[in-house]
Design brief:
Blueprint lengths: L17 H5 L5 E4 L3 E3 H18 L6 E5 L4 H12 L3 E4 L6 H11 L3 E5 L15 E5 L11 E7 L7 E6 H13 L9 E4 L6 H14 L2 E3 L6 H11 L3 E4 L1 H8 L12 E4 L6 H11 L4 E6 L3 E6 L8 E5 L5 E4 L2 E5 L14 E2 L2 E10 L6 E6 L3 E4 L2 E4 H9 L4 E9 L11 E8 L5 H9 L10 E4 L22
Parallel strand pairs: 1-10, 3-4, 3-5, 4-7, 9-10, 9-11, 11-12, 12-13, 24-25
Antiparallel strand pairs: 1-2, 5-6, 7-8, 13-14, 14-15, 15-20, 16-17, 17-19, 18-19, 19-20, 21-22, 23-24
Helix pairs in contact: 2-3, 5-6, 7-8, 8-9
């Protein structure tokens, strides 16, 4: 098959890929189990363009990318963007029912899929085979400004579909690059957050590409493996979620990278015990990034100097306000595809549903919790009402209420445990209900604790009220 002959970057392509075209061919762009030079990256991106064009994908199309974190995923993302094609990101761990529900709303023209990993500890693959197939596109929104479409949990029980324009993505990445302390040209960045998710992609992959830093990708999510790779690669920065820093802090031996100067956590509150153990072992205090899929990074505390629940100062160019104790962020357009059923966006302001305040004196933003049903579970957003909706579909379930309980073990990773309270007409067992959920939800959304045939508290309007749930979490 003939190679693409025109330049990688043209008028019809997406923004920041000029970094791929301009970088020295022999420079290393990223390292997995093999080092990928910019020459190799350009070859792989061109191969994707040849393959997608042969299938009929063109500028203005939407392609769903349901591929696990890998170089293969990134080559396809860049290759599609280089031809001005919108990309819909679907988590490879999604069950078919979840993916189908999203594609019914977006209706992509094509879908790229690969076999999901069978080993849950595998964090990143170098490459694996994928298929490219046509998909019936009915009623898809033809918005040529959109470059990226992602899913974000919603409090209505239905995932929100977020569309971001090329201009919005570039502004987000440029704010990250300009933020003092973020990775610089020539530094090595250990990216532990998945490149398929908003933080890993925007603050990790694209910010490193824009800055000229080299990505280092993990192999297995095991304490010893993670720590040894960080040391051997001599990384200057580590980007991850609290669970990653917990794993690194539990590694035995002395694996501190000599060049390490920055560690940044995102996705959930960092437990003080995890922060202190990591700082003692590696000599660096973990900072944090606060943001959302809809708008990108909002505030940062890269030095870790803010005391929780403060998350740092808002970045220049990000405008926020607090109304009745809730945080709103300025956005030039509604980020949602389809109707905004929750009234999240109005008059140029996006309601985050995060309760917040500004810290007196420092001006740092303090995030005090959620005002809706979305929770962070191990760095992943989980909409509790989505789980409730799935459970209510069971023929023997009258009603369901899902909440977050205490972590399973006090001395392990401090990940809240999802638990479900079920009112039934029959006698379904926890095992049956768990299997029902496993067939319809990603595994990390399935409740771990079950309370079957229980009374569910309700508010004055008769709605299930998880705030008044006082039953034991044992």
């Amino acid at each position: 098959m003939a190679a693409v002959t025109e330049p990688l970057i043209g008028r019809d392509s997406w923004w920041g890929l000029d970094a791929i075209a301009a970088a020295p061919a022999s420079a290393v762009w990223a390292e997995g189990s093999e080092a990928i030079t910019y020459a190799r990256l350009r070859e792989e991106v061109d191969a994707v363009r040849v393959r997608s064009r042969a299938a009929g994908a063109r500028k203005g199309c939407t392609v769903a990318l349901r591929v696990s974190p890998s170089f293969t995923f990134l080559w396809w993302l860049f290759g599609l963007w280089a031809d001005g094609i919108r990309v819909l990101l679907l988590d490879a761990r999604m069950k078919d029912a979840e993916a189908d529900a999203v594609m019914e709303q977006v209706a992509p023209h094509f879908i790229v899929t690969g076999e999901p990993p069978t080993d849950p500890l595998t964090a990143f693959h170098d490459r694996y085979e994928v298929t490219l197939e046509q998909h019936v596109a009915v009623g898809t929104a033809e918005d040529d400004e959109l470059a990226l479409i992602q899913c974000s949990s919603g409090s209505s029980g239905v995932p929100k579909i977020v569309g971001r324009t090329a201009a919005a993505l570039l502004a987000d990445v440029d704010r990250n690059v300009a933020n003092p302390g973020m990775p610089k040209r020539g530094e090595r960045v250990y990216l532990l957050s998945p490149a398929t998710h908003a933080f890993g992609l925007m603050a990790g992959v694209l910010t490193a590409l824009r800055a000229g830093a080299t990505l280092v990708l993990p192999d297995r999510l095991h304490p010893e493996d993670l720590a040894l790779r960080a040391c051997l690669a001599d990384v200057a920065a580590i980007l991850g979620a609290p669970v990653h820093f917990d794993l690194l802090g539990r590694a035995s031996g002395d694996h501190r990278p000599p060049s390490l100067r920055l560690a940044v956590s995102c996705g959930d509150a960092l437990p003080p015990s995890v922060r202190d153990r990591f700082a003692e072992k590696y000599g660096v205090t973990v900072g944090q990034v606060y943001g959302m899929t809809e708008v990108g990074v909002i505030a940062t505390d890269l030095t870790g100097s803010c005391a929780p629940p403060a998350v740092g100062r808002t970045l220049p160019g990000v405008e926020v306000r607090i109304v009745d104790g809730e945080l709103f962020v300025r956005s030039d357009r509604c980020p949602y595809i389809g109707p905004d059923q929750e009234g999240r966006y109005a008059d140029g302001w996006l309601r985050t549903f995060d309760r917040a305040e500004f810290e007196p004196g420092s001006g740092a933003l303090r995030v005090l919790g959620r005002a809706d049903s979305v929770r962070n579970i191990g760095g992943l957003k989980v909409d509790l009402s989505e789980i409730e909706q799935v459970l209510r579909g069971h023929p023997e379930v009258i009603d369901a209420l899902v909440t977050c309980g205490a972590p399973e073990a006090a001395d392990g990773p401090q990940v809240p445990m999802i638990e479900a309270y079920i009112a039934t007409t029959g006698t379904p067992t926890p095992e049956e209900l768990s299997e029902w959920c496993h067939r319809r939800l990603s595994d990390f959304k399935v409740p771990r604790r079950w309370h079957v045939d229980t009374d569910i508290p309700r508010n004055a309007a008769g709605k299930a009220d998880r705030r008044n749930l006082t039953r034991s979490t044992g």
